[in-house]
Amino acid sequence: MKKIKDFNDILRQLEEVLEEMAGDIGIPKDRPVSIDVSINMCPYMDFEGIVEVPRHEEKIPVDILETGDSLHVVAGIPGMGIEDIELDCTGWALGITALNPAKTVREIVELPVKVNKTGMKTTYRNGILEVVCNKSKRQGRPGR
Q: Does the predicted model carry a pTM greater than 0.70?
């Protein structure tokens, strides 16, 4: 099948396929038929199948600095926008995910002390992400 570049061509081909299917199962042409069609347009898909997305996953270099009542996690994530970065904190670990069309970066950073999940402050400048977390008053390890 040739690559389709025009949406009207997609609709025309869809109509042809549906007419052929209706004829195969014996639906008369003058009888109304209700058909529900969902189309999900994806930039990495052609009509021959799904094309491999050229994406690689890499590790993030991370430094952890502990001060009196806070913990600073500093990670190098160049080539991302702030909107591409997601953080997830469990208290004992900080999950960092950065995703854009060129690359995917994931890291789970085990923290040396328990931190509060709320009240984190983040900055992202020149490819460097800094997350400042407040240490928790309760430091018992999970499962202990």
A: no
